[in-house]
């Protein structure tokens, strides 16, 4: 069965599908401010039911999860689709060229908060299910949908939700459409993410700031305490010196190394994007560092006077915020404890505060699901997709691979310049409609895989 009729149906319904997307976009859902969350969850539930997806709200300690399913048979192949209905605050409002919650089309793009992240991509999934059901009367596989309302807050309750509902959520594959596609315009398939450990280090001296002359050499300066600690943590080449930091860094497989070598790379373009003209890495090293190696980043450092002019003081306190990206089998709890042990050994008076932790996640590049999704994406776009072993950033992908034990694949539908989290967030109309078609192809190819698997079992 070809899918040409699906593409025709999407084209014929383009106005209707845009109207549905615009309805969801107009509904504010700012999770960090608890603005419109309940209304948006209920709206999404109704829209999923209209699409033929049996849906309901499942409460969490925070905002509810909108859960839906189209179930054929419990023994059939099951795909779980993940997304989120919450959005970032629209600030600064004055930088928007049109109202942030009034979808506006300019030059083939839909501008609105949530257009790319993640309502546009989420609705592409929902409308793909509706399109497939309306065209063929049934799906070839089971589908479950989990749309959370706290991704923009760090998915603080997603892990406990998944743990509590593991039986309900059991699936053969988790599929996510989130984030921007590749800058080259080629479709992108992501097989993992780096984890993240966020900490703050605070050093204290006297009870208040002191005159740097009258009390110089008498009162200790907490900034120097932090500098000394950091010098004990990292050598000049960038290697982290905390005992055991690299113990569980999973080395890339031969296939992953091969993929790193084939990823597009334009040194001048990257140098311009990051604003660092001295950038001189080759492509393989760049991708190896970005996806397969942990980081040890100081995100902010503050102490004493940093305003205009001079103020001659010995500050009473200094603090540094760090985000440490983790890879492979590194456990953020383990790394946090090793960091704390290092601080206790070298500077026990410095306080360590944990701000958050997310484990890394990676689905092996040779997993049987990868070529199926690759084939589906190719058929949808008529273009060979880029297969990337990991994202440099962090998503809550571990809840699927580590808590549920399911493979997880991310295929971004939004354009590279979607400006997610920024003013004038957008999604190209072309990307929205292509996303609907892509999900239809994913459903179809997984159905073909499920049929062949059943056939081989029956033959045996």
Secondary-structure map:
Blueprint: H1 4-12, H2 14-26, H3 37-50, E1 54-58, E2 65-70, E3 78-84, E4 104-106, E5 109-111, H4 119-136, E6 142-148, H5 158-164, H6 166-169, E7 173-176, E8 188-190, E9 192-193, E10 195-204, E11 210-211, H7 222-233, H8 254-262, H9 267-274, H10 283-292, E12 297-303, E13 313-314, E14 317-326, H11 332-346, E15 351-358, E16 361-362, H12 369-381, E17 386-388, H13 398-404, E18 408-410, E19 426-428, H14 429-459
Parallel strand pairs: 3-6, 3-7, 7-18, 8-17
Antiparallel strand pairs: 1-2, 2-6, 4-5, 5-19, 9-16, 10-14, 10-15, 11-13, 12-14
Helix pairs in contact: 1-14, 2-4, 4-14, 5-13, 8-10, 12-14
In short:
Residues 192-350 form the Peptidase M20 dimerisation domain. This protein is of the alpha+beta class and 460 residues long.
């Amino acid at each position: 069965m070809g899918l040409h009729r699906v593409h025709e149906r999407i084209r014929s319904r383009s106005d209707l599908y845009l109207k549905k997307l615009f309805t969801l976009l107009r509904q504010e859902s700012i999770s960090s401010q608890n603005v419109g969350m309940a209304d948006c969850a209920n709206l999404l539930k109704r829209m999923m039911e209209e699409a033929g997806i049996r849906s309901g709200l499942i409460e969490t300690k925070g905002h509810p999860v909108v859960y839906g399913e189209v179930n054929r048979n419990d023994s059939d192949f099951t795909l779980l689709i993940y997304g989120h209905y919450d959005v970032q605050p629209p600030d600064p409002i004055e930088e928007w060229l049109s109202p942030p919650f009034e979808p506006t089309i300019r030059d083939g793009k839909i501008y609105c908060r949530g257009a790319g992240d993640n309502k546009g991509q989420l609705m592409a999934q929902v409308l793909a299910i509706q399109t497939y059901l309306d065209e063929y009367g049934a799906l070839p596989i089971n589908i479950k949908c989990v749309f959370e309302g706290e991704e923009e807050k760090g998915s603080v309750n997603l892990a406990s939700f998944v743990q509590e509902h593991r039986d309900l959520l059991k699936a053969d594959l988790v599929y996510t459409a989130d984030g921007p596609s590749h800058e080259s315009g080629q479709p992108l398939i992501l097989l993992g993410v780096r984890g993240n450990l966020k900490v703050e280090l605070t050093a204290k001296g006297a009870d208040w700031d002191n005159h740097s002359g009258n009390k110089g050499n008498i009162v200790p300066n907490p900034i120097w305490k932090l500098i000394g600690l950091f010098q004990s943590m990292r050598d000049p080449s960038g290697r982290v010196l905390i005992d055991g930091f690299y113990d569980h860094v999973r080395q890339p497989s031969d296939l992953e190394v091969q993929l790193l070598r084939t990823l597009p790379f334009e040194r001048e373009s990257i140098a311009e994007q990051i604003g660092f003209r001295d950038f001189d890495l080759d492509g393989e090293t760049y991708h190896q560092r970005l996806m397969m190696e942990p980081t040890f980043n100081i995100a902010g450092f503050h102490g004493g006077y940093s305003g205009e002019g001079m103020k001659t003081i010995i500050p009473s306190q200094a603090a540094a915020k760090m985000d440490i990206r983790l890879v492979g089998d590194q456990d953020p709890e383990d790394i946090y404890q090793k960091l704390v042990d290092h601080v206790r050994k070298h500077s026990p008076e410095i306080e360590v505060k944990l701000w958050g932790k997310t484990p890394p996640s990676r689905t092996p590049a040779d997993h049987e699901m990868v070529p199926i999704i690759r084939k589906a994406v190719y058929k949808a776009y008529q273009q060979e997709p880029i297969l990337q072993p990991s994202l440099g950033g962090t998503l809550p992908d571990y809840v699927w691979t580590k808590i549920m034990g399911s493979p997880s694949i991310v295929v971004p539908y939004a354009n590279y310049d979607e400006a997610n989290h920024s003013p004038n967030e957008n999604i190209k109309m072309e990307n929205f409609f292509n996303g609907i078609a892509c999900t239809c192809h994913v459903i179809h190819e997984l159905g073909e895989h499920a049929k062949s698997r059943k056939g081989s079992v029956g033959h045996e």
